[in-house]
Design a protein that fits this description.
Layout lengths: L8 E2 L5 E5 L2 E6 L2 E6 L4 E6 L4 E6 L4 H22 L2 E8 L4 E5 L2 E5 L6 E4 L4 E4 L5 E6 L2 H14 L9 E4 L14
């Protein structure tokens, strides 16, 4: 039995979960999310204990894999609509900066042109100052994907550490030629 899959998903106050056929819908103060799970697993709502239970019909390899995955996805949806997810990015480098213009994040990170990234629907992107970007949302995958796309515009380089990095990310700095 999957250690993750057999744990019930607790439903906190203020969050409604609905299961119909193969669609699981979660609604809370920060938004509404839904997922269609695979046929290999079944999802049941326990109103008495305020839990969501995920079980599998067979013991095949795919069913075991989707058992834990489905439970984790539902847990992430519940956490997302209740508390939300946040990714913080730092922009490091002389003259490097970011700002919000309309519905796009505009980055100046050492290229001849400004790089403009359209902000996806459902995300809240903020620039408290020119060297920090905060990505917030209820969908964990969407928050992480947009933060990774912004970071990929200019990854931190290993000699001076210039570029876009996650807040608290350690960049291993290589010694230059003269250090040998």
């Amino acid at each position: 039995m999957s250690r993750i899959g057999k744990k019930p998903v607790e439903i906190p106050g203020g969050v409604q979960v609905a299961v119909s056929d193969r669609v699981v819908s979660v609604e809370g103060p920060l938004g509404k999310l839904q997922i269609t799970h695979r046929e290999e697993v079944s999802v049941a709502l326990d109103d008495e204990n305020k839990n969501v239970l995920v079980s599998r019909g067979t013991n095949e390899r795919e069913a075991r894999a989707y058992h834990g995955l489905t439970r984790s996805l539902i847990q992430n949806m519940v956490t997302g609509v209740k508390e939300g997810y946040v990714k913080r990015l730092e922009i490091v480098g002389v003259g490097y900066q970011g700002q919000i213009q309309g519905d796009a994040l505009v980055l100046r990170v050492g290229f001849a042109n400004e790089i403009s990234k359209k902000i996806p629907q459902g995300l809240d992107v903020d620039c408290p100052d020119q060297t920090h970007v905060v990505v917030k949302g209820c969908n964990k995958q969407q928050v992480g994907q947009f933060a990774a796309e912004v970071r990929a515009v200019r990854k931190p380089e290993p000699y001076k550490g210039k570029g876009i990095r996650y807040e608290g990310e350690l960049v291993k700095i290589k010694p230059g030629k003269t250090a040998t």
